[in-house]
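Preliminary data (for renewal application), zinc ion complex.
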Amino acid sequence: MPQPTLRNRTLLASGFHAPVLGEVDVLTDVLIAIGRKGEIVAVTRPADPGYAEARFAAEASGRLERLPEGSYLLPGFVDCHVHAPQYPQLGAALDVPLEVWLQKYTFPLEARYQDLAFARRAYSLLVADLIANGTTTALYFATVHQDATRILVDICLEKGQRALVGKVAMDDPETCPDYYRDASVDAALSGTRALIEYVRGHPGNPEGRVKPVVTPRFIPSCTDATLQGLGEIAGDCGCHVQTHVSESDWAHGYVLSRHGITDTESLDRFGLIGRHSMLAHANLLTVADMETLKVRQAAVAHCPLSNAFFAGAVFPLKSALEKGLHVGLGTDISGGPSASMLENCRAAVTVSRMLESGTDPGRPPHARGSGIPTRIDFRHAFHVATAGGAKALDLPVGEFSPGYQFDAIVIDTRAKGGSIRLWDEFDHGEGILQKIVFTASKANIGTVWIGGEVVSADG
Ligand SMILES: [Zn+2]
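Predicted structure:
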C-alpha cells in the first residue's frame, strides 16, 4: 500500500491523462516526483535522460512508491456541478418537470438544512462518497443558509476535498417560497460576502483548497437588485461565479419574457459572466450566446444525465468544444441520478450519439437526428471530466504535469467485486482507458490523493 502522503516522494506508475482535447497520453512506468506542497515537480518517462538515475536515487533514499501491476493512475475527476443538499434525493424525484420539481421536492429538502445536525450528517456522507467515487474537485451549490454552508466548507477541509462552495442566493418572493429564500436583497448580498470572508479567512484553509463562489441560483429565483449586487461582488472579490443558464424551455423562456433578452445576455448585463464563471446546462444557447461565453472565457458545466430528465434537449458538446469554449462535466446531483463521474462520461458519449442519429424509429433515418456530426468518444469525455473541467475552473489540477497539484486516483483493474476485465491478448495502450471509462465501477477505484495526500484508501 502507498504511504499516507506522496509529498516529498516519487511515484512509479502507469496510467493515463488527457491534457489535450481528443488525445490520450499513455503513461508507462513514469516517475512522478511530488514536492512538499503536493505539487508535481517532474514527470520522467523511461526514454527521458536521467530516468534511471532518478529512479535509483528515489529507491535508494526510500522515497519511491510503486503502483502494483494491474493498477492505473488517472487524474481525479473534476465535478463542475453539484447541489450538495440534494444528495438525500439522489435517484429519486425524477418524475416531474424542473419548475414543478423545485417546488414539490427540492425547496422542501433544501429548507431542512436549517437543521445543522442534519446538514452535518448529509454533507459528511456526500463528501466521503464523492471522494470514494474519485471526485477530487467539486463545485458545490449549498443552500441559502449561512451556517449550514459553513459546515459544508468545514467538512471539505476536514476530509481534504478540493472544493468550491457557494451560499445560494435566491430572494424573489414571486418564485421562491416564504419558507426557503433570502429575506431581502441585503440578506442575499451580505450572506454572500460573509461566506466569502469565512472561506478565505478559515484557519484550516491555508492552501486555499476550498474557494468561495458567488452563487445566484438562477435568474428565475433572483430579483434584479440581487443579480446586480452579486455581479458587483464577483467583480470586487475575483471569486468564481456559478449559476444555471438556459437549461430547459421553461427556464430559457422565463428569462426571455422577464428581461426581453436571453439568459446569457441578461447574466452578462449583470456582470456575472467572466473567466471564472461556470454556467450549468446551457442547452438552449443561441449562436450569439455561445460567442458571448467564448469572448468572456466563461465555462459550461455539461450535465448529460440530468439533461435527459429535466432539459428536454442535449447540450451540443462537440460544437462547443470545437468553438473553443471551456467545458467541464457535472453530475448535477440530484437532477442527474448518479454521483459517479464515470457514469456521466458514459452518458456524455451516449447522448452525443443519440443527438446525431436521432431516436424516433417512426422517422426515416435522414430525418431522425441533428443532421450534423455531434458524436464524441471516450477521449473527449475523459478530457472534460478531468483536464477540461480543471481548465474551465482555472485550477492547476486534472493532469500530470509539472506545477500541477497531484490530485489522482488509482483504478485497480483486479479489485475484488470490480467490473472491468482486461485481456492481455486484446487490451493495450489507450484501449485500456476506453475499457476503464466504459466498465469500471466504484469497487475499481482504489487510493485517492488530493494535493499528494491520501484522502481515501480501500481496505
Ligand atoms: Zn443545478
